[in-house]
Automatic annotation (TrEMBL):
Keywords, comma-separated and alphabetical: Kinase, Membrane, Phosphoprotein, Transferase, Transmembrane, Transmembrane helix, Two-component regulatory system
PROSITE patterns associated with the record: HAMP, HIS_KIN
Alphabetized PANTHER family for the sequence: SENSOR HISTIDINE KINASE TRCS, SENSOR HISTIDINE KINASE YKOH
Official protein name in the record: histidine kinase
Residue ranges of every copy of the HAMP domain listed in the record: 180-234
Gene3D superfamilies reported for this sequence: 1.10.287.130, 6.10.340.10, Histidine kinase-like ATPase, C-terminal domain (3.30.565.10)
Catalytic function, reaction form: ATP + protein L-histidine = ADP + protein N-phospho-L-histidine
SUPFAM superfamilies documented for this protein: ATPase domain of HSP90 chaperone/DNA topoisomerase II/histidine kinase, Homodimeric domain of signal transducing histidine kinase
Alphabetized Pfam families for the sequence: HATPase_c (PF02518), HisKA (PF00512)
Residues passing through the membrane, by range: 159-178
Main location (coarse class): membrane
Residue ranges of every copy of the Histidine kinase domain listed in the record: 242-459
Amino acid sequence: MPVKLRITLLFCLIVFVILATVCATAYYFSYTARTNNIKTRLTNRAITIARLLKQPQVFDRNLIRKIDSSTSNNLKDQTFQAYDYRNNKIYSYSDAPTDTLAIDTSILDDARVKGTIFFKIGNKEVVAYHYTNATTRIVVITAAYDKDGKANIRTLSNILWFSFLAGIIIAFVGGYFFSDRLLQPIKQIADDINEISARNFARRISTNSTVRDEWHYLSETLNQLLNRLQDSFETQRRFVSNASHELSTPLTAISSQLEVSLQKNREAQQYRVVMESVYQDVRHLSKLTQTLLEFAQASGDAGGLNILPVRMDEILMGLPAEMKKSNPDYLVILSFNDMPAEEQKLIVFGNAELLSTAIKNIVANACKYSDDHKAIIKLQAEEETITISITDKGTGIPEPELKYIFQPFYRVNNTAHQSGFGLGLSLAYRIIKLHKGNITVASTPGQGTEFEITVPTAKF
């Protein structure tokens, strides 16, 4: 079912419930008011007849009948009857001479107990009233057909039905028009999105800056999503291009060296030189491939990782030996000040290997690009976070390039002479983000750089 029709039907249902409630309430109170009115009028008439009947010396029955016949009260087919305490009929009057009421004795007994009862006989409404004094005990029956009252109720019922049906029709037409106007911005957004493609990805959804409603918020949100997608596609394109270049360079070198060595017969020493060169290129290619695999793993989500409680101080304490193993000139100094007494404050939920890789990449850069090849690591544990700062006194990073250093294959201009792929910081950034942490960097060219890693502590 189209959304436009669903909104229209829902709107009609709401209007249906409201109109039905209003009409039913109006009819109920009008009907109750008419019933109470006829009951009051018949009761008053019964009281009047009873008071007249208790004075037989002043008002005989014929005179009372004349009074009843001459009284105008807009009631039709009136019938009045009175019974003594032995259930004998002592008075009777009817607008139509042949009209009479058959009253059961149980009704008379019920009236004597309750005082006044109201019931119906045919189309007439009847009141049985028990009147007593020191000398009189009678039950007066007054009955009549409320022609005007029921006619008014029928007229009101017709008006309410007409209003109800007209309201439903108007609600359907108005709801259909309203839903069409309501969904028009959605259709416009869909049309704009349909025009966006890989060749026209810079296109954005048009927004009305003067109206800040939900449709404007939706358009802005979709535009922000498209911006993020465009940035992701651009990053992916650059990554594929750079990765292809980095992979093709050692492959080309290997192919060229093998091709040259096979052009003619050579001495064993010459073959050995070629094989050593090829071996270096293969090691370079293997290291690049391993880094790319780690990068792909860190680019996923935490659901595919082996997540366990990890002590960050234990990861950091293994770094000095690892850095020394990779390069004897590298020196890592650990500074664990104000260590917390609670072990839980040093534990995070994560993958130990990935976290170690992330921190090791930053520490390796700090040692590599410092003249003294030294990196200082500080650990600080707080209530909900663990902060690790890595400081060096190297060449530093120029301010304009700080925003690019976490992009894959990006290398700062003043480090181009050093070996590397430009994936270390990008890999570290993705790993820390995967662990719901954050990395910030502050650098002064010629003085050094400080990286600060913040990760949330484990909640037990």
